[in-house]
Amino acid sequence: MEKYQDHLLNDIVDVGKLQEIQNKFAEATGLAAVIVDRDGRPVTEPSNFTPFCLYVRSTSEGLSRCMCSDDLGGRKAVTFQGAHVFRCHSGLTDVAAPIIVNGQYMGAFLAGQVVCADQDYDVYAEAVEKTRDLGLDREKVKETFAQLEVVPENKVKAAADLLYIMTNYIVEIGMVNIIQRQLMFQMKDKADLEKMLREAEIKALQSQINPHFLFNTLNTIARLALLEGATQTEEIVYALSDLLRHNLRNNRPMSILCNEVNYIQSYLSIQSARFGDRIGAAVDIPEELMDLQIPTMTLQPLVENAIIHGLEPKKGAGQISISAAEAQNRLLITIADTGIGIAADQVALIFDDGKKLNHHKHGQSHTTGLGIMNVHNRIQHYFGKEYGIELSGEPGKGTTARVYLPVSRKTEYPS
C-alpha cells in the first residue's frame, strides 16, 4: 500500500467531512473537540471550546503549548491502541484518539477541556501556576476557569469510547479514499503505458529497415567510391558499415576486447577523416589480452568523451592513446588524451550520481558524466564494486580514464 507520511490528514479525508464529524461529537457529548494533524496543528475549526482554553490560546506561547500538548496526547494514544485520557499542559482533562491510516499516524481526534470530578489535586491551583508566565489577567483566568464543566469519570470514559468509534469511522473514510486514489493512479498508469506501447509500435515500424539492405547500400556506395578513385570515402563508408553492424547485431551484454578494439578503430577512422591531422590516435594492446571479456560498448563512450570534450575544443593538435595491461589478476585499460583536461571538482561531480556536467567552458552543447557513469555502473553491476572507472586529469594537461576489469576468458555472460 502507498505510504502517506508526506501527506497531511486533509489530503486524504475531506476537511468538511472531518468538521461535520467533530461538530456532531461535540454536540452529543458537550465536550470541546478538535482534530489535529501529526504535528498537533488544528485541521478543523474548534467545536465548543471553553472560554478558558480560548483565553490561553490567545497568546502565541499558550497556543504553542496547547499544540504541543495535543500532539503529545495523540502520539501517546497510539501506544494505547485506542482513546487515551490525559491531562493537558494546564491541568485540564482531555481525551485523544489517534488517527492511523494505512499504518501511518496522521493526527488525532481530541476532546475534553473539562475538570474531572474525581481528581485528587487542586486543578485550579495547577492551572493558575502553569499559565502564570503567559501574561494573562488573573481575574479573567479565574472567571473563565469557573465556567469549566466538572464531569464524573464515567462520562469521560464514555466520551473516550465514543471518540474511538468516531476515529475509526474517519480511518475507514481515509482507507476508502486511498483505495480510490490508487485505482485512479493505476488506471492512469495503464492508460499511459498503453499510449507508450502504441508510440513504441509506431517507432518500431518506422525504424524497421532491414540491416542487410542498409549494409548492402553502404557497400554499394563504397564500391562506387572505389570506382571513382575516392579511397578515403570508401574507407569511411566501410568504417560506418562496421559500426552499424556492431550496434545492430551485438545484443549480448558482454563482448571480447578484440571486438571492442575493432569497433573503436572504425570509430577513430571516421573521426580522423573529420579532424585530419588535428587528432592523432594510437592503440597499443598486447595480442594475448584480445580474448578477454569486456562489457559491450565499454570503450566507445570513453573514446568519444576524450575527443569531444578533450581534443575537439583544444587549440592545435592532440593525441589519444588506448592501451591495456594485466596486473594482479586485473585488466587495466587506459584511455588518455592530451586535451584541455579536467579539474578534480568536475571529476567528483561526474561520479556524484552521474550528474550532467559540461566538461569545459567553451560553449559545447555536449555533456559528460552520463556515458562514463553508464559504463562505470554496468561494470560494477557485472563484477562488483572493486571494478569500474577511475578518471583523473588536470586543466590544460589532458585527461586519463582507467578501466578496471577482472581477467576472464569464460564464455558465459552475466545477466
From TrEMBL:
In terms of SUPFAM superfamilies, this protein maps to: ATPase domain of HSP90 chaperone/DNA topoisomerase II/histidine kinase (SSF55874)
EC? 2.7.13.3
Keyword line: Coiled coil, Kinase, Transferase, Two-component regulatory system
Q: Which Pfam families match?
A: HATPase_c, His_kinase, PocR
**Which transformation does this protein catalyse, written as a reaction?**
ATP + protein L-histidine = ADP + protein N-phospho-L-histidine
Under the heading SMART domains, the entry gives: HATPase_c
Indicate the segments forming the Histidine kinase domain, all copies: 299-409
What start-end ranges are recorded for coiled-coil regions in this protein? 183-210
- The question of whether GTP-binding is a record keyword is answered with no
Keyword Coiled coil: yes or no? yes
Q: What is this protein called?
A: histidine kinase
Q: What organism is listed for this UniProt entry? A: Heliobacterium chlorum
